[in-house]
Design brief:
With 86 residues, the protein is α/β, with parallel strands linked by helices. It is built from 3 helices and 5 strands, in the order αβαββαββ. Strands 1, 2, 3, 4 and 5 form a 5-stranded mixed β-sheet that branches.
Length: 86
């Protein structure tokens, strides 16, 4: 699947070979084991957890610089904010 197809598809989970995924995988701060990304009609959505607010900002900037991205929504939690049940 080409990046163009992902940006125009109604709902697509970003996977290997797509420009958003490829850009994130090049970054040392991206942890695909604790966060994931999907694209719906040019809207990038992050879910999962983050180590820091700097990591959140870096992911947003990386996604915003991909052609075809119209908006970025980050729904990740800081690992320090996740509620722990006792």
């Amino acid at each position: 699947m080409k990046a163009k197809d992902i940006m125009t598809s109604p709902v697509v989970t970003v996977g290997p070979g797509t420009s958003v995924h490829a850009e994130l995988e090049r970054q040392p701060w991206w942890h695909s084991t604790i966060a994931n990304v999907s694209v719906t009609k040019g809207v990038v959505e992050f879910r999962g957890t983050i180590d820091s607010e700097e990591e959140r900002a870096a992911a947003r900037i990386a996604a915003e610089n991909i052609p075809g991205v119209r908006r970025v929504e980050d729904r990740r939690f800081s690992i320090y904010e996740v509620p722990v049940s006792v």
